């Protein structure tokens, strides 16, 4: 792995020493760790939020036959 073999930009000794004092063992443990399969989720894994213009909101409210904003508070929230 290029991160641990020829480190020229960073000092990898600190990180490797956290895994083991033996450099060879530390490299092996680091490689195992970086190759583990995980279920991490990232912000870009989620759907992009819907962006609605004011005009579109007005049309939706009108379609629901809502006369004033106070009526919105009485609507059931989707589950």
What does this structure look like?
With about 80 residues, this protein is mostly helical. It has helices spanning about 1-5, 15-20, 25-35, 55-65. Helix content is about 40%, strand content about 0%. The protein has 4 helices and no strands. The longest helix has 12 residues, at about 25-35.
What is the structure about, briefly put?
The chain is mainly alpha-helical and 79 residues long. It has helices spanning 2-5, 13-19, 23-34, 54-63.
Global mean pLDDT: 81
Give Rg in angstroms.
27 Å
Helix segment tally: 4
The helical percent reads 40-55%
Quick one: how many beta strands? 0
β-strand percent reads: under 5%
Shape: rod-shaped
| Low-pLDDT stretches | none
- The oligomeric state of the chains shown is single chain
The computed structural class is: mainly alpha
- What is the CA-CA span between the terminal residues? 47 Å
The biggest beta sheet is recorded as: none
**What is the succession of H and E elements?**
HHHH
List keywords for this structure.
79 residues
What's the arrangement of secondary structure elements?
Elements (H helix, E strand, L loop, with lengths): L1 H4 L7 H7 L3 H12 L19 H10 L16
């Amino acid at each position: 792995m290029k991160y641990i073999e020829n480190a020229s930009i960073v000092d990898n000794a600190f990180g490797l020493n956290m895994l083991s004092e033996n450099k060879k063992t530390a490299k092996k443990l680091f490689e195992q760790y970086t190759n583990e399969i995980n279920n991490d989720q990232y912000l870009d894994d989620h759907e992009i939020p819907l962006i609605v213009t004011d005009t579109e909101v007005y049309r939706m409210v009108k379609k629901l036959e809502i006369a004033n904003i106070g009526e919105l508070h009485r609507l059931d929230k989707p589950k």
